[in-house]
## 1
Amino acid sequence: MLDSNTFSTHRRGFLGRLGAAIALGVTGLGPVRLAAESAAPDGPSGAADPLEDWFNRINGKHRMLFDAPLPNSGFAAVWPRIYMNTMNATYGSKDPDDSVVVIFRHQAAPLALQDAMWAKYKFGEQLGIKDGDKPAMRNVYATITGLPIPGLGVAELLKGGVLIGVCNVALSVMAGDIATKTGGNADAIHAELVANRIAGVQVVPSGVMAVGRCQEKGCNYCFAG
């Protein structure tokens, strides 16, 4: 179980890496407007705002936000499906009636990334996540099997209509941390992480900003990390 000392350690480590990323001049810490998969132009200028288009998809009868700052054994990739299944069974609703959002931020950001990034940057080892008896070299939470409930995992939730966002500040800090350790270019690494997110995941300027916007859109809040 995580205690207050654990959270203090995570906070100090994150703030230190954030400072290092700023010192490196990681441009990914600035505002982002990253294109969604199929954003249509809107507004009088014809210019699309993919980020607001994404937030505007929160329009279901039932609205729930799962806030995931830590990996927490992948529960943020499980609970949304349980929520939808039980809402449907209890109230006779369908998945499209539910606007469900997951925000991966802080140390949970790697859960939004493809296997190649886990293998290259050893996120399993860094986060203490195992695949069998060894540190995970793939995103074990992209598709979760072996449980009596289908549709679990980040990629499967996206297929089911769940909105999933990942914190750009967290990605930037990760890029800066990797650059410091490897001597690489932080901006190039940040771009690589963004390009290798699981298809359908939206990059949001910051996780805490997205958590607030989702609640402004009427989402109830569930802490998932």
## 2
Amino acid sequence: MASHEPCCAPTRQRLTRYATCIHTSGTRPRVATGSLENMVRIETCAFHMGSESPKAIPTDGEGPVRRVTLSAFHMSKFAVTNEQFAEFVRKAGYRTEAERYGWSFVFGNHVPQPLRGPALPGTPWWVRMDGADWSHPEGPDTSIHRRQYHPAVHVSWNDAMAYCRWAGYRLPTEAEWECAARGGLDQKTYPWGDEFTPEGRHMCNIWQGVFPDADLGEDGFTSVAPVNAFQPNGYGLYNAVGNTWEWCADSFDAVWHTEASRLDPAGPPSGNTRVMKGGSYLCHESYCWRYRNAARTGTPPDTSTGHIGFRAVRDT
């Protein structure tokens, strides 16, 4: 079983020398100005967070299972779409980190062989693609035309934070994300329960087949799906797992949460990476069983790929 790096979240540091240490307050900011359209209210609640599954990846630090209490908040039903992100870019005059770097990571199978940039050492399915960014997901000759309702990808944590500040939102804490993804079900593996394909129905967008050679697309997709694909969970959230990874506000640490507050936890006060949750269309149980409610991974805040997006929250 893989560790949290690099199959799920390839990092620029492996091709550059860029690095940073993030310092945060370790507390959840209060933000309550963004529109409530297409958001659901998650009431004040206590839930069991984490997992002690023997299939969990030890270095991810999913356990121990602990009872966490959260104040009420609102979360978007959907990941932030290309249409929404385009409005932000246009009105705020914002340039994403992928645009400033001039490249981003693209899944190699989505790029014709002659156009592929250098592969990431050890994980050749990830290639550096010059000119890839949120509006050119597979490179400069591609676009988001007809993908307005797909999640915005090639968006770094820093980019997601900039969008949230502009729109009057914030990123969810890991605890908020996991509570919302569970949809009111206690300690279930997936947002809909424990059975992965109930009555033979696919409930999320992940990999079927032999990775990385062939995705059979049995769930209907071999790349990113629209944000409203599949059925919502008990709270009305769509695509909480699979499709794209989603950024959380917290710094990533595999053990810090064992001693953290159980009331509105907000992650450690500093770190080099940020939490991502939910897995993506590239996940498969054979090597990356992270399309589960409790699964987690971390990657630097400047990372951008074709399988990382985000959704927004605001306070009540």
